[in-house]
Design brief:
6 helices; 0% strand
């Protein structure tokens, strides 16, 4: 079943929650994104920010696996959710 916007946002929120509780990855996300801890709280309902969280997790297969295993969702779910959120559209250069 294709991801609805609501379903994608819920998965993005779960990813943000998981990331916020990960003492190893959270500082890497904050450093690479330029986000602050207050941004995590203030932008929790921002689909674009949730898309950025998924973009970050998708950078490393082990992060995808760790999150998906924790949530009990299939690995491709992150890619599907990311494609649904703003900025996740496929770009075709030809």
């Amino acid at each position: 079943m294709p991801f609805s916007a609501d379903r994608a946002e819920v998965l993005g929120l779960k990813a943000l929650t998981w990331l916020a509780g990960n003492e190893e990855l959270l500082p890497i996300f904050l450093g690479s994104s330029g986000a602050s801890l207050s941004d995590l709280r203030d932008r929790v309902n921002d689909p674009e920010f949730l898309g950025a969280v998924l973009d970050f997790l998708l950078m490393d297969d082990s992060w995808v696996m760790a999150f998906c295993d924790h949530e009990g969702v299939p690995y491709p779910s992150l890619v599907e959710a990311r494609a649904t959120l703003p900025g996740g559209e496929q770009v075709h250069w030809t």
